[in-house]
Amino acid sequence: MTRTWFWTSLLFLLATGGGYGQALAAQAPVPAPIQAQAQLIIIIDDIGNNLALGEAAVDLPGDITLSVLPNTPHGKELAAIAKFYGKCVMLHQPMETVSGMNSGAGALLQSMDYNDFINTLKNNIAFIPQATGMNNHMGSLLTQLPTPMDWVMKELQDNKLFFIDSRTDANSIAQQRAEKHGLPTLKRDVFLDNDRALPALKKQFYRAIDIAKQSGHAVMIGHPYPETLAFLKERLPTVATQYGVQLVKADDFFYAPAKRTIIAASPSIMNDTDDINIDNLNVNESALTPIIPSSINIDSPIKESFDADNASMKDMLPTPKNPPSRYQLQLQGV
């Protein structure tokens, strides 16, 4: 009798659409939607002029990308050290500015003919053999010009390098031309340290996190200023646990999507009043080339505001990893 009742009941539930089962299901909690974790790419530009600050940039915790200026005193060595310690290395290619400001050795200029232009770019790429991609240093003028940008992107394509547009001018077409040539490409969303005061650094850092959460990823560019390095050293270890974003190297973003993890969506941490139109924000290119002393007094505080945050150059330098010399790296085949 029991067995007959069981089968009769089961047939009844099937015939009526399983209303009892649906009622039970309706009472069960619905899992929160799962989204791919927001990605934050942090690029430290202008590496190569100062060895101590370059080593401190290499020593930043997490998956950081370093962009190295060509023809600099320590560029080759720092690129090798950065690769040795698993950082992403990029070429930070100087380009011509609207103001006519000198953007540095190895700059690409609109006055160059094709051969001079390409040979200059080839030499700069060869200077940083560890580079897997490139972004522009300055370049507010050149990044607006279709022909030079097509020359750049064709050379990057031949060398299998990705391109990130630093967007030093809102009229840049560099990313557009990179897409035309089929290059992996992104654009800069936030400059971290145009203002190196602590409140300004925090605001830009939070803005980058907010953009990453809204768009899925964000690119933030900083520079090897002592204030910037101390700020990032303190905050990067908790960027995933505290802010819910994944720090990712630029090359991993393009070429290793399997490394991306999954978490539940996180709310915005910025106020609406903090929003600005990034695409309409031109950048003071003179602020992108810091005048860095050849030596630093690491016993002196960076700034009073950073003393309050317990971050000083003494805490940051010298790098505890004791990077190997260029000779040691050559012996290891790096």
Task: Describe what this molecule looks like in 3D.
It contains 14 helices and eleven strands. It has helices at 2-15, 19-27, 51-58, 75-84, 114-127, 146-158, 174-180, 198-215, 226-235, 239-243, 250-255, 304-307, 313-316, 326-331, and strands spanning 34-36, 38-47, 65-68, 88-95, 133-138, 162-165, 185-187, 190-191, 217-222, 245-247, 262-264. The strands form two sheets. Strands 2, 3, 4, 5, 6, 7, 8, 9 and 10 form a nine-stranded parallel β-sheet that branches. Strands 1-11 form a two-stranded antiparallel sheet. α6 links the parallel β5 and β6 (162-165). It is globular, with a radius of gyration of 25 Å. Residues 1-36 and 260-321 have low confidence and may be disordered.
Give a short overview.
With about 325 residues, the protein is α/β, with parallel strands linked by helices.
Q: Which characteristics define this entry?
A:
alpha/beta, single chain, 334 residues, 38% helix, two-stranded antiparallel ribbon, 11 strands, nine-stranded parallel beta sheet, TIM Barrel
Give the number of helices.
14
Strand content: 15-25%
Q: Sum up the overall morphology in one term.
A: globular
Helix content: 25-40%
Give the radius of gyration: 25 Å
What would the average pLDDT be, to the nearest integer? 77
Q: In CATH terms, what is the fold-level topology?
A: TIM Barrel
Sheet bearing the most strands, described? 9 strands, parallel
- Uncertain stretches of 5 or more adjacent residues: 1-36, 260-321
Question: CATH-wise, what's the superfamily?
Answer: Glycoside hydrolase/deacetylase
Q: Work out the count of structural domains.
A: 1
* Intertermini distance: 79 Å
CATH-defined architecture: Alpha-Beta Barrel
Strand-pairing-aware structural class: alpha/beta
Number of strands: 11
